[in-house]
Design goal:
It contains 13 helices and nine strands. By secondary structure, the protein is an alpha/beta fold. The chain has a seven-stranded mixed beta sheet. Strands 6-9 form a two-stranded parallel sheet. It is elongated, with a radius of gyration of 27 Å. The structure holds guanosine-5'-diphosphate-alpha-D-mannose and manganese (II) ion (MN). The site of manganese (II) ion has 5 residues, from loops.
């Protein structure tokens, strides 16, 4: 269905198969991939500029527009442009989303180097040859058109909120890559690097970051650009995409750091559980005897910890029913507390250093108890 639609929309140029890699790389050096959704006003400005700059630099190229069935006349605009420029339009009708559109374009690209850029002229077309050259000559395996490297920048009217937002998002990605602008949607990568990627499953907008991590890019070069605000059309970046970014980051952390990433999430969840425990305990003390209040507070905290651990920390572990997981989780937390207590008791009674200092022995108990609890959660509860 998709094939026939593409063929119907593209009478003048060849439709490409949608499931296989396009390996005919003899025709050009560079494929410029432009994901679009409702960018009919921008394409007639962008395409000639990109084409002219590449031609002036003596670089052979094709432009692949990946459109998610905008129905705004993008097909007619592309057909017109294709009469003068080496341009192909791929229309997707089943899937949607910026990242998957970029991957779709890469799978059908014919060049041996890929450049990805937005259609809205935020990314300066005159920098495309610089990205290509950096990838060819500087031994880089990933080149970013970067706003945050010396010489780069963003438009003045980027409000404080968008700027802060972008900086914060960048900070969260820092454990994954030290480059200054990992959020960028303007970048270049070699076909060979792309083909050697671990399985790609980006959610949301940050396809560049996904490729840096999954293609294990080491030598990342930044070419300074000034990011211009879009003049025509509308941005599609909304709050949902920001939440998607957090989900995407979690996946990338898990990929890069494995069990350590899970342990980190487990500890973060546990810390919130400790706060809940104390608050509930303080509240219950108002009406219940201490022993009972303590028991209820602990149980509330376990239940509190259960849900984010199931949904986030161990989101892959779906072998058991939720009821079974809950019972096992409460049991493993209880066992964890016993281990914590035993460790504390052993240290306190057997090691002279802790004699008379019961508080000092507690952290060791907390560490072993948490480790024990984590291992049970990982290997048994959320297997
Ligand atoms: N095919 C397709 N499908 N294209 C899409 C979709 C989609 O669902 N959503 C957006 N696009 C296209 C737009 O048409 C545009 O060409 C490009 O992707 C970027 O979309 P914008 O809506 O203009 O995004 P932005 O300006 O908010 O975000 C840009 O800057 C961010 C950094 O501040 C993008 O480059 C982001 O990748 C980048 O992180
Ligand atoms: Mn934009």
């Amino acid at each position: 269905m998709q094939d026939s639609l593409e063929t119907a929309l593209l009478p003048q140029y060849e439709a490409t198969p949608t499931s296989t890699l396009d390996t005919d790389t003899s025709t050009c050096l560079v494929t410029v991939i432009v994901p679009t959704f409702r960018e009919v006003e921008n394409l007639p400005i962008l395409v000639p500029q990109v084409a002219n700059h590449l031609a002036d630099a003596g670089i052979s190229f094709e432009i692949v527009v990946v459109d998610d069935n905008s129905q705004d006349g993008t097909d007619a605009a592309c057909a017109k442009l294709a009469a003068s420029f080496p341009l192909r339009l791929l229309v997707r009708t089943q899937d949607r989303g910026l990242s998957s559109a970029v991957l779709h374009g890469m799978r059908h690209a014919r060049g041996s180097l890929f450049v990805v850029m937005d259609a809205d002229l935020s990314h300066p077309p005159e920098k495309v040859p610089d990205l290509v050259k950096a990838l060819q000559t500087d031994g880089a395996d990933f080149v970013i058109g970067s706003r945050y490297t010396p010489g780069g920048g963003t438009d003045e009217n980027w409000g404080l909120f968008r700027w802060l937002n972008s900086k914060f998002a960048t900070l969260l990605a820092w454990p994954l890559t030290s480059t200054h602008d990992p959020m960028a949607g303007f970048f270049a990568i070699r076909r060979a690097t792309f083909e050697a990627a671990a399985p790609l499953d980006p959610i949301g907008y940050k396809i560049g970051l996904e490729l840096i991590v999954k293609c294990r890019c080491q030598a990342i070069k930044e070419v300074p650009i000034s990011f211009r605000d879009r003049v025509l059309g509308q941005s599609k970046l909304n709050f949902k995409e920001q939440l998607n970014y957090l989900r995407h980051l979690k996946r990338l952390y898990d990929f890069r750091f494995g069990a350590w990433a899970q342990l980190f999430q487990f500890i973060c969840v546990g810390s919130t559980g400790m706060i809940v425990d104390m608050l509930v305990f303080a509240l219950l003390l108002l009406f219940l005897p201490e022993t009972l209040a303590r028991g209820f507070a602990i149980w509330t905290a376990m239940t509190w910890n259960f849900f984010p651990n199931r949904k986030v920390t161990f989101s892959q572990g779906r072998a058991r029913s939720i009821g079974m997981q809950y019972v096992l989780f409460c049991m493993s937390c209880t066992l964890g507390s016993v281990v914590s207590w035993l460790t504390w008791y052993a240290l306190y009674t057997a090691i002279p250093m802790f004699d008379g200092h019961p508080l000092l022995a507690a952290p060791a108990g907390i560490v072993t108890g948490t480790a024990f609890n984590f291992l049970l959660s990982k290997h048994l509860v959320f297997k």
